[in-house]
Write a structure and sequence with these properties.
Elements lengths: L31 H26 L2 H5 L4 H6 L2 H13 L3 E13 L2 E10 L2 E9 L5 E8 L26 E5 L19 E4 L23 E3 L4 E7 L20 E8 L2 E8 L11 E2 L4 E4 L11 E6 L9 E2 L3 E6 L2 E6 L6 E4 L1
């Protein structure tokens, strides 16, 4: 999220980050974390919808009253009035076409929605703190529609198991810009970013250090038997929210596995000095490859994973990635792709 309301037509630069969510029918089998997350989602959705309604109606005072002190220092009532004029000149805020919520922690609760504005679509992104004050946001024309996916409907030949222990949260996942910023990169169109979400967020304390994040140091297992094509280690871990260490590979410490039939699995952002395999190694399903870290283009500890059709990391075309034998939001499934907001674990 940006630090102020911005009205731009160009795509927004985003760093790899990670988060949580919930869905499914009934509460039986769902964790306390999933139920708490869902309650947070409902609250953020209600506040986000209200603010967009106020912008549509031109109620500048009501929107400004929600600004945190820092936000109020960055965005003036005059700028808000300019935004309202721009929206009206474009045709006015019309029906909502999409929305979603992402809760990173008490002071980072994001609401995103797409609305028709005249003959086009606009994206409304709002970040709230624990008291529902607006602490950031970005409002702009929506991206152009995604090009057709050349691998739509593809079924991986390899059986791929979930690579982590315990319950994890899908921070980025799905086939929409709102839920998965990876979709604009051809090789990462079906990528996931996975974190641990508990006690209200992805970390304890203030989240200033990597070891405050629940995901940090968790073991990463090989989802299938295969051959290591690439193994990179020794890259420093980024500090939370700092972004990539200059001069490092975007994937940081990573492992690319050849799982057969022209399918290659990339697992990225391992902790420095934790990678336990090297190029040419044969690995077995479930073998520990290393530990979750925050190396490369990473804003907090998490695991990035995607399937591609190229033996070179971050190249080629991304392939759909359904994991087998999962518990998703408390329900068993034989095979399923993942979506942002789900709580998942191996069955």
């Amino acid at each position: 999220m940006g630090g102020m309301f911005r009205r731009i037509a160009a795509p927004v630069m985003v760093v790899v980050v990670v988060g949580a969510g919930a869905c499914g029918s009934g509460d039986s089998g769902r964790s306390a974390a999933a139920l708490r997350y869902e309650a947070e989602q409902r609250q953020v959705q209600a506040v986000g919808r209200e603010v967009i309604s106020q912008l549509r109606d031109g109620d500048i005072a009501a929107v400004a009253a929600r600004f945190s002190p820092e936000m109020a220092a960055r965005v003036t009532p005059t700028e808000l009035e300019g935004l309202v004029r721009e929206l009206r000149a474009a045709g006015g805020v019309g029906p909502r076409t999409d929305e979603g919520e992402l809760i990173q922690g008490p002071d980072s609760r994001v609401y995103q929605a797409e609305h028709q504005v005249g003959g086009g679509r606009w994206t409304f992104g709002l970040a709230f703190d624990e008291g529902d004050d607006i602490v950031g946001g970005e409002i702009r024309p929506a991206f152009e529609p995604l090009p057709p996916d050349p691998k739509a409907g593809y079924q991986p030949r390899a059986t791929l198991r979930f690579p982590l222990e315990g319950e994890w949260f899908v921070y980025w996942g799905g086939d929409r810009d709102l839920t998965n910023y990876h979709v604009r990169a051809p090789d990462q169109r079906h990528a996931y970013d996975l974190v641990v979400w508990r006690d209200g967020g992805t970390h304890r304390g203030e989240g200033r250090d990597n070891d405050e994040y629940w995901a940090w140091g968790q073991p990463i297992h090989a989802p299938a038997a295969g051959t290591v094509v690439v193994a990179v280690d020794g890259t420093p871990d980024s500090q939370p929210a700092a972004g990539a260490v200059p001069g490092t590979h975007p994937a940081g410490n990573h492992v690319l596995l050849d799982v057969g039939e022209g399918e290659y699995l990339l697992l990225a952002h391992f902790q420095k000095d934790s990678v336990r395999v090297k190029a040419g190694d044969k690995v077995t399903e479930g073998q520990v490859l290393g530990l979750v870290g925050s190396s490369g283009n990473s804003s907090e500890p998490h695991l990035h994973v995607h399937l591609q059709d190229s033996p070179t990391p971050l190249s080629g075309r991304g392939l759909p990635l359904p994991f087998s034998d999962l518990i998703v939001d408390g329900h068993q499934t034989d095979k399923a792709p993942l979506e942002q907001g789900q709580f998942v674990r191996a069955d």
